[in-house]
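Morning F.,

Quick status update on the modeling queue. The single chain you submitted on Monday has been processed. Sequence for confirmation:
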Amino acid sequence: MNIHIQDIHPLSTDNNKWNAIQTNLKEKISKVNRLTATDIQFIAGVDVAYWEDEGIEWGVCSIIVMDYATKAVIEETHSNGMVVVPYIPGYLAFRELPLVIEAAQKLTHTPDLFMFDGNGYLHPRHMGIATHASFFLNKPTIGIAKSYLKIADAEFEMPKNRAGSFADIIINNKIYGRVLRTHQDVKPIFVSCGNYIDLPTATTITEALINSESRLPIPVRLADLATKKNRRQLRNNK
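Structure tokens below.
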């Protein structure tokens, strides 16, 4: 059964409207759990990669769906195309959404939760790609970032050097996300709620998907590898 995509706003909106769109959606963010870890059957990892060819920018999105219990990959979808939305800091979601939605529409399994290679609530308007996309997907989402997006010149506290250690990212007395160390002697990752989930649950789910191969949760790592592979193939074919 194909996933039903909500019609939230046109994907090709004028960038003069972006701030108003995100400000409106921000008021609808919910950090109340729609599910718990035991409710998850299928979980998806999402990543988008870009490249330039003769002055034209292209993008590819990969979505990897896996069984949460067995960690077996059960489906993989991709989308690619010319990227016409300009890059404006803080509004990356508007560039990525068309490719994410196209790849999601190809799914034959409906994930219970999506994990994005990128931020969610850890964003100046709490509207990173994981949060923004959640309104279209109508599913709980988690943002997993490899590097820190500095907001309001706020630094973060480094967690202790052991697996499972974390420190909340607090900006203006508000928790935006969490720095999580998934392996000893390895750089931490940055976990944030996307939507329809709270931070402790997002952290628990993330930790359950870590293996010895990467600091990233398995769905995000596989999506990252898939986008790199597809980008390489598409580059060679052009």
